[in-house]
UniProtKB/TrEMBL annotation:
Membrane topology: Multi-pass membrane protein
Annotated keywords: Cell membrane, Cell shape, Membrane, Transmembrane, Transmembrane helix
Lineage: Bacteria, Bacillati, Bacillota, Bacilli, Lactobacillales
Protein name (Swiss-Prot/TrEMBL): Rod shape-determining protein MreD
UniProt KW Membrane keyword: yes
Predominant localisation class: membrane
Keyword Manganese in record: no
One GO cellular component term: plasma membrane
Location relative to the cell: Cell membrane
Family according to the record: Belongs to the MreD family.
Family matches, as InterPro entries: Cell_shape_determining_MreD (IPR007227)
Transmembrane segments: 35-54, 75-94, 106-128, 140-162
GO biological process, one term: regulation of cell shape
Species name: Lactiplantibacillus xiangfangensis
């Protein structure tokens, strides 16, 4: 019974995060995307990281859900299929590999989230550069996109960590 609740709450939360990624980006576009800085919200990634590390028995099909939500994200938000459809399952795979080696606490999860933000943003940067969607250099990407993206998402992580931890512990 207890894992059936998590199996229902996880996809609902994932699609709420997907919706909020676009909605909050639209509402706060003037602050998130003020030239030359760009801050990309990654609430879907945050929800996936929480699910990987806070699910005790690893019963959730997080890899399949991440592929599906990545496809929806690409299709609806970016219009370029493949970026998040590949990046999100890659992050899920990497996190599942390192999870047994980590002691789960706030700082560890924060560092894992920073590393995964960097992986996803670097993957998107490389993908878009190869597809000639963007033409900025690596230094501009690091200063004007990666830095602000990490800053905004870290603030969201700090605010969301304890409520999300309580949610997962209550349904686990």
């Amino acid at each position: 019974m207890r894992y059936s609740r998590l199996k229902i709450i996880f996809p609902i939360g994932l699609f709420i995060a997907l919706f909020l990624d676009g909605s909050l980006s639209n509402v706060f576009a003037g602050h998130l995307f003020s030239y030359p800085y760009t801050s990309v919200l990654h609430l879907v990634l945050l929800w996936l990281i929480f699910a990987i590390f806070l699910d005790d028995r690893d019963d959730l099909a997080i890899g399949i859900w991440s592929t599906f939500v990545g496809l929806v994200f690409d299709w609806y938000y970016t219009g370029i299929i493949g970026v998040y459809m590949i990046a999100l399952p890659l992050v899920v795979y990497l996190c599942r590999q390192i999870k047994p080696w980590l002691d789960l606490n706030f700082l560890t999860l924060l560092m894992v989230y920073i590393i995964n933000l960097t992986i996803v943003e670097a993957f998107a940067y490389i993908w878009y550069s190869m597809g000639h969607v963007i033409n900025s250099n690596l230094a501009d990407f690091a200063v004007f996109t990666l830095g602000p993206t990490i800053a905004v998402n870290l603030a969201i992580f700090v605010i969301a960590y304890y409520p999300m931890r309580r949610l997962y512990l209550s349904v686990n």
